Fold this sequence. Notes:
alpha/beta; elongated; two-stranded antiparallel ribbon; TIM Barrel; 358 residues
Amino acid sequence: MAKSTLVIAEAGVNHNGSLKLALELIDVAADTGADVVKFQTFNASRLVTTVAAKAEYQIANTQAAGSQLGMLSQLELSHGNHKLLAARCQERGIRFMSTAFDAESLAFLATLDMPAVKIPSGDITCGPLLLQAARLRKPLIVSTGMSTLAEIEQALGVIAFGLITQREPTGRADFEAAYAEAEGRHALECNVTLLHCVTQYPAPPESINLRAMDTMAAAFGLPVGYSDHTSGIEISVAAVARGATIIEKHLTLDRAMPGPDHAASLEPAEFARMVAAIRNVEQALGSPIKQPALQELNNRSIARRGVVAARHIQRGEILVADMLAAKRPARGISPMDIWSILGRAATREYRPDEPIEL
């Protein structure tokens, strides 16, 4: 059986600042079969300035202009609420995660039982947060939306430095050196998964370029997953078939709800179908060895052909092509050997459709 893909239900801020909705999202995520439900943890004033404008997709999805600060301030959950969410996850048998967007939030999340630390796409160039995350010594999931290969490599340099040293860096040269060292590369291989991602909500299929997953895996020698912001489930399923080790997909109770990410999210029944499809694909990936499946062995004699007499053949007749036919089932000699018996004398009498034997 293929290795199981980690499916993350990205609740994000789809709770709209309501603890009740956040708890409902956990219950729904558990019911869909997701492995992890993930939220977002931040202090809005530490994340954005007062003049930071909304992205175009945020304006479209919230149907309002205004500042990021105003929008995000309404989407915060307290540390106490996070503890309640983690407890509900434990009750429901699903892992809790959250993405930190500032140093204080990351330090707080480190006190909770999370299977990994997530670096969001927007912070792949935030050196201090990358360094802090690396020094937590937890598995890291690094999302790469909006990034070039060079930017990913630079981020990995910071992470490698954090994983193999305790000293304070003096500049980019330290990160480049850590990335170049065998110890640094080994530390990355043991701790980091990259996520291919397109930072648009929703993202059109023509923007996705799933083949970039192959490029990232080849360039960095790290496992690669996919954070999906498209509408529908098919591209996540295709990513699994292409080798994604993690699938992250937004989950909402209702796509019509107000908020920046609901429009690019799956509703519960859709998310459950995606999980089921992913598990089917995992089963189907199977082995790279090409050989008959156990289930088809009995069908070979039925579906394949054998050489039979095309008409009545007398003993001693010289066999020529128009005396012979290839028909199901596969009895007698194989049609692959039909040329080897042409010109021979029939060793016995054959009735029409009777298998020819050597």
